[in-house]
Amino acid sequence: MCSVSDERPVGCWRVTCIVGLVDGRDVLLGGDCAAIGSDHTVSVRREPKIFRNGPALIGFSNSFRMGQLLRFALHVPSMRPDTDALDWIVREVVPAAREALRDGGFSEVRENVETGAGFLVAAYGRLFHVEEDFHVGETLDGFDAIGCGGPYALGALRATHGLCLAPEERVLRALRAAQHFSGGVREPFTTLRLLAPEGGAVAPSSRAARARKTAPTLTANTDV
């Protein structure tokens, strides 16, 4: 997470941990609350790094300014019927995010290449990683993690695969592992679950089903 003053020194993105996990047709996101300034000061922020925006959950791992733009300036459109979710995010969500970041003065253009910052998007039963060059990735593992704690969280998610653990517990264990090994991750942790629509295929016509159970859950337990 970048500095509270929104400066963007080299390497400022190497903080925070955002975790995503696909649970059947639901998707969970989890995140920490650390903010680290360019002078290496650490604070714990009240505003979450994961939030609901329209039909999607978003988790960011860079400047809080970027997160605020993704939360309040970006309008995530609903997916049209008979549209693949990857097609939807590439052709509709990412262009809207680029416009919001550009208008908000966050994205940069160097040598005719526009860059922003990485974030996770959970929607319609899928988990996507939008990278700094705005290309979209989706893993076969059914989970992903970004930020300085991302590699540790990925290891924890793989280690808990197949165990009799609730998905929320797997996400929290991944965040605790990231905090144990990374100085850029801090509690409390927040988790959100985005429900798939009841009955039938995942489609934007059943947004009411996904609207439930999106209240954050906080934990102060640091045991891994």
Question: Major sheet: order of its strands?
Answer: 12-1-2-13-14
Residue stretches low in confidence (pLDDT < 50, at least 5 long) are 1-13, 199-224
In total, the number of strands is 14
Would you tell me which CATH topology applies? Glutamine Phosphoribosylpyrophosphate, subunit 1, domain 1
Q: How much strand? A: 25-35%
Level of helix content?
A: 25-40%
User: How many structural domains?
Assistant: 1
| Shape-level CATH architecture | 4-Layer Sandwich
What is the makeup of the main sheet? 5 strands, antiparallel
Q: Which secondary structure elements does this structure contain, and how are they paired or packed?
A:
Layout: E1 18-23, E2 26-31, E3 34-36, E4 42-44, E5 50-53, E6 56-60, H1 64-73, H2 85-103, E7 108-110, E8 113-115, E9 119-123, E10 126-130, E11 136-137, E12 143-146, H3 150-159, H4 167-181, E13 189-194, H5 207-211, E14 217-219
Antiparallel strand pairs: 1-2, 1-12, 2-13, 3-4, 5-6, 6-9, 7-8, 9-10, 10-11, 13-14
Helix pairs in contact: 3-4
In short:
The chain has helices spanning about 65-75, 85-105, 150-160, 165-180, 205-210, and strands at about 20-25, 25-30, 35, 40-45, 50-55, 55-60, 110, 115, 120-125, 125-130, 135, 145, 190-195, 215-220. With about 220 residues, it is an alpha+beta fold. Strands 12-1-2-13-14 form a five-stranded antiparallel β-sheet, with helices on one face. Strands 5-6-9-10-11 form a five-stranded antiparallel β-sheet, with helices on one face. Strands 3-4 form a two-stranded antiparallel sheet.
